[in-house]
Design brief:
Oligomer: homodimer
Number of strands of chain A: 15
Mean pLDDT of chain A: 96
CATH topology of the largest domain in chain A: Peroxisomal Thiolase, Chain A, domain 1
Helix content of chain A: 25-40%
Largest sheet of chain A: 13 strands, mixed
Largest interface: A-B, 61 and 61 residues
CATH architecture of the largest domain in chain A: 3-Layer(aba) Sandwich
Strand content of chain A: 15-25%
Low-confidence stretches of chain A: none
CATH superfamily of the largest domain in chain A: Stage V sporulation protein AD
Number of domains of chain A: 2
Order of helices and strands of chain A: EEEHEHEHEHEHEEHEHEHEHEHEHE
Number of helices of chain A: 11
Distance between the termini of chain A: 19 Å
Chain lengths: 341, 341
Amino acid sequence: MKKIGKTYIFELPPLIIGSAGVAGKKEGEGPLGDDFDMVFEDTTMGQDSFELAESAMLHDAIIRALESANVSPKDVDFVMTGDLLDQCTGSCFALKDLEMPFIGMYGACSTMALTLCNSAMLVSAGANICVAGASSHFASSERQFRYPLEYGGQRPPTAQWTVTGAGCAVVQNQRNIDPENLQNAVKISAVHIGTITDLGIKDANNMGAAMAPAAARTIADFLHDTQTKPEDYDLILTGDLGLTGSKLLFELLQEDSEIDIETQHKDCGTMIFNLAEQDVNSGGSGCGCSASVFCSHIMKNIKNGTLKKVLFVATGALMSPTSTKQGQSIPGIAHAVLLEK
Amino acid sequence: MKKIGKTYIFELPPLIIGSAGVAGKKEGEGPLGDDFDMVFEDTTMGQDSFELAESAMLHDAIIRALESANVSPKDVDFVMTGDLLDQCTGSCFALKDLEMPFIGMYGACSTMALTLCNSAMLVSAGANICVAGASSHFASSERQFRYPLEYGGQRPPTAQWTVTGAGCAVVQNQRNIDPENLQNAVKISAVHIGTITDLGIKDANNMGAAMAPAAARTIADFLHDTQTKPEDYDLILTGDLGLTGSKLLFELLQEDSEIDIETQHKDCGTMIFNLAEQDVNSGGSGCGCSASVFCSHIMKNIKNGTLKKVLFVATGALMSPTSTKQGQSIPGIAHAVLLEK
């Protein structure tokens, strides 16, 4: 891979040969419901806790992604996933019986892009098959980050709704690809690992505002490094800035860099729900938001040719309930992946 | 890099060109006190909380490691660190003002080996300089995982003492190395990402027992993959199995694989404290245990020729207070790095 600025371009792009995005009942009732590879009406997944339900959902997404790529767990060199639960137990318990070498990653809601970036780079280093994924669950997040579900806490309009969902993508080295998989494969042409950006936002009910500066920085840097313009992309997809964060992203890019991405931009957080009807305030959030949307709806549209060149920029708010209670700001990060048919 | 079994051998080994291990007062009073690059008498680090103190300690280790390698933060391609705090805020707040592209990782107490493995592979993919690190803090861990410090909870003999410390290593691509750095550099000859291993241990006061099966598996697999014997190593260094876990490791390796590593084995958790005098029960633990010991004491002994071939196997217990309260077992993992002068 070749470095330009902070962006890495692959001479031999790693390929996504399979993916799956799964989601819960509420997400299934949203605009992308038909595109998910599975919608679980029972979001307990038959488990004893919401935490184990999240693990079960990620486990399901991994199995579906491997099936779609026709890959067995024993052929996977590395699986890298992450989630929002304390000590990343969403991932640890999802992976524990799958017998794949496990790289635990943490990028808050940017995790899907982070694991895709790292997978692509490890393939570039010589690995054959890497698996990237992420998950979140409304019920496990709500009680960990906010209030017990039974409390019914009120939310301001800037708040977002943690998505119950998981996504997983299988990345293979182009050198070893089965010709059968080639025509449906999606190229990872470039990756860009973000730098933490903190403009001092402290409101844990306004993650969009905390993450927008990181997204603006990564997008501006990526366009600068690759000498491209927003018009060169069919889609610039942010993770989960929601309505509030997306508006701030436009303003920041316009003011700081005179870049206008409004025509090309969509946000997984505003796509996954019908904001006018589903009572999710500023939109969806959580690692599972961009993971489930990217690995199902977006991948399907790249594969069928509707989207030819997509810049996927997932964003994360690097806080914890403890750091918020201690009055700390919310550092943001955004990682980018360039995808082409 | 070349794959043999689950082990990756580097044709052109990435080099550790600088490192630093820092620790708290109690660790400074232990047998390795003189080898730490810094011992902080005031483990609050002048911060408002123990969580921020942990971040400040990791920040310090990173700066010292970069200085020892004569590298500026702006020349770092990727920094990857992790810790035990909820949502990895130890790392996020340590890194937030350093302006380096950040890859968040989670491997519980195996994190130092995990970040070293990933750093080496990203260098193998074409990155120039990667920074790997990890931290833990007794006071931030104690109140998050166990009891408020003021409560003075009693511990069984199998319990371990979370190390207040951090370590950081700077890994460079051999192609680009400054000749001045070459003679002090340490080669990363091979890496091995572990697979989660869970034999059903549920006692959160016996992490050694939870992690020993993963360590045994990784060591047996590594020796098998590389067709080597324990005698081929000057040191087989586990992360923080403590007394209990180390004993179980010997038994498991002997029974399952007829491998005897007792002569070559040491454990960071039993090295860092004087177990007879420092009241730490089974020994030290936490990401900062193997990180601070490896990045100071061990690196110094490889550089001065005392140790020529070291297999570093850090171990992690992939649980959270929530998973333990829900009655779940503690999955273990162990990642290995082969280091040579």
